[in-house]
Amino acid sequence: MTKYKLEYIWLDGYTPVPNLRGKTQIKEFDSFPSLEQLPLWGFDGSSTKQAEGSSSDCVLKPVRVFPDAARTNGVLVLCEVMMPDGKTPHPSNTRATILDDEGAWFGFEQEYFFYKDGRPLGFPASGYPAPQGPYYTGVGYKNVGDIARQIVEEHLDLCLAAGINHEGINAEVAKGQWEFQIFGKGSKKAADEIWMARYLLLRLCEKYGVDIEFHCKPLGDTDWNGSGMHCNFSTKFMREIGGKAYFERLMAAFDAAREDHIAVYGPDNHMRLTGKHETASIHTFSYGVADRGASIRVPHSFVNNGYKGYLEDRRPNSQGDPYQIASQVLKTISSVPTDSDVSAAA
Ligand code: ADP
Ligand code: MN
Ligand code: MN
Ligand code: MN
C-alpha cells in the first residue's frame, strides 16, 4: 500500500468569479486511485461563501482525477460542491447542470497576465515599457524577461504530466501576458481542464512570488490588450454536414442570444470588448472570415470546406467560467434547425 496525497480542489461561492480552493487528505491505495475509489469529503462552507456558520457542512464529490507531478504520490481531485445530502448540487456548482454532448468539441484559449508588485511582470516601477508590438510570440530578455518563460514551461510540464490536453502556449500581445490552449470533447472535458490548469498555474507561481491576473482588462482604458478566453467550438453536425444555410441560421441564433452569451462570458467584459485591440463591440454581434475584430471569427478552412468545421467565439474573457460558456454555446446551437428540419417543416 502507498500513501497518496489527495488534493481535493473545488470552486468556492465568491461572485462574480469563484476562487479555486484545495485541501489535502492522505489515503492508502495499492496503486494510483481511480475516480470510483475516491470518497466524498466535506469542508466548512461558511469560510468559502457556500454556507451559513450555523449549518456549515458542504460535500466534495470527486469528478475528475489527475496525477500531480509536483508532489510525491500526488493526486489532483477535481470536485463538485454538493449540499449536505451529497446528491443535490450546491447553487455555486455550475458544472453539475450544464448541457453536454460528447460530439461537441471545445478549444479554449486562456490568456492571463503575470503580476508582481501590483503590475505586469516586466513593467517598470513607474510608467510603461516599450509599446506593444514585439511581445506577441516574442523571444529575448527585453521581450519576455527572465522568469516568465521558466514558469510557462514548468506549467506546461505539470499540465502534460496531469494528462491535461494542452494544445499549445504562446507569449501574448502585452508584456507579461501569455496564453495556453486546451481542447476537449464534450462540454465538461476542456472546461474541467481549464480550471485544473488555472489551479496548477496559481499554485506554481507561489514559489516565484508572482500572481496571475485573470481580469480581462487589468490595465484599463490604455493601449494595452486585455485578456480573453476565445472559445473554439464545433458539433458533429457542424463538422460533418454544416453548409451555408445552416451557418447563416446559426449566426442569426447567436445574434438573437447575444445578451445570454455576454451574461456568462465573464465579468467586466465591457472594458475589453470595445471594438479596439482585436475585439468586437460588446453591444453588437458580428462575424467574419478570418476577422479578429468580429464577435465570431470564421476560419478560412471553414468556408473552404463548404461551411464545415469549427468557429471561434472571441468574446468570452479570461475570467469566464468555461462550464457556463460551453453550455451557452451548446444551448444556442441546439436551437438551430438543420436543413432537413427546415424542409420537413415546409
Ligand atoms: P488563434 O490564436 O489563432 O485564435 P489558437 O491556435 O490559439 O488560435 O487556438 C485554436 C483553438 O481551436 C485550439 O484551442 C484548438 O483546440 C481549437 N480547435 C481546433 N479544431 C477544433 C474543432 N474542430 N472544434 C473545436 N475546437 C477546435
Ligand atoms: Mn490563440
Ligand atoms: Mn490569444
Ligand atoms: Mn483565438
Automatic annotation (TrEMBL):
Alphabetical GO biological process terms: glutamine biosynthetic process
Superkingdom of the source species: Bacteria
A Pfam family per the record: Gln-synt_N
PROSITE patterns: GLNA_1, GLNA_ATP, GS_BETA_GRASP, GS_CATALYTIC
Record EC number: 6.3.1.2
Entry keyword Nucleotide-binding: yes
GO CC aspect terms: cytoplasm
Matching SMART domains: Gln-synt_C
Catalyzed chemical reaction(s): L-glutamate + NH4(+) + ATP = L-glutamine + ADP + phosphate + H(+)
Subunit structure: Homooctamer and homotetramer.
Function, in words: Catalyzes the ATP-dependent biosynthesis of glutamine from glutamate and ammonia.
Protein name in UniProt: Glutamine synthetase
